[in-house]
Amino acid sequence: MKRYGFIFARGGSKGVPGKNIRPLNGVPLIGHAIRAGRDSGLLDRIIVSTDDPKIAAVAEEYGAEVPFMRPAELARDDAPEWMAWRHAVDAMEAEGHFDLFVSLPCTAPLRIGQDVRDCIALFERGGCDMVVTARPAERHPSFNMITMNDDGFAAIAMPPSARITRRQDAPPIFDLTTVCYVTTPSFIKRYEGAFQGRVKAVIIPPERALDIDTEQDFAFAEFLMERNK
Fold this sequence. Notes:
Layout: E1 3-8, E2 23-24, E3 27-28, H1 29-40, E4 45-49, H2 53-61, H3 81-93, E5 100-103, H4 113-124, E6 130-136, E7 146-148, E8 154-156, E9 174-183, H5 185-190, E10 199-203, H6 215-228
Parallel strand pairs: 1-4, 1-5, 6-10
Antiparallel strand pairs: 2-3, 5-9, 6-9, 7-8
Helix pairs in contact: 1-4
């Protein structure tokens, strides 16, 4: 079985400018994703899809391949990443068949190789079209999350049934994370999104599930890495 890891890193990040090659604990953000993929020991190739020559150069420095450049129209803020996935699949299948598509977003730098192995193992046990990752949610839509109507009045987002009066008795809720996605090239080409198929999830400890979208997230990641040294 050929398992390819993919890292999608466009150059136009606005929340944290230049974040994909910004140093985090002495290593560019994309370098952490490459290392986790390599440390998994299960990926035959680690491929970076980017529109930015600077990102491509850093990726190759840390041991990834950049066999193609992503078209500009697939690197805009409003471009669905699923289409970048499909472009990458088409580009690599032009070289030959591969069996497993493993996406390792740059924004989860605290993941470890074991997390990647766990996702691949769950997928290869069968019974699903995709594996995603999640972490236990800190808030519950039936108790701690609200909506606001046009008049400014608040309401519980998902009111619990009359039988459930405590959060502890409600079904557990999880936040999706960007640690890892596993599927097949054929699923990406056939469908338009992950939840159009049968999806299973690997639960990631909160300390490894941080998703970097803001400067605050970046600072917190630096704190966690310093603490864990």
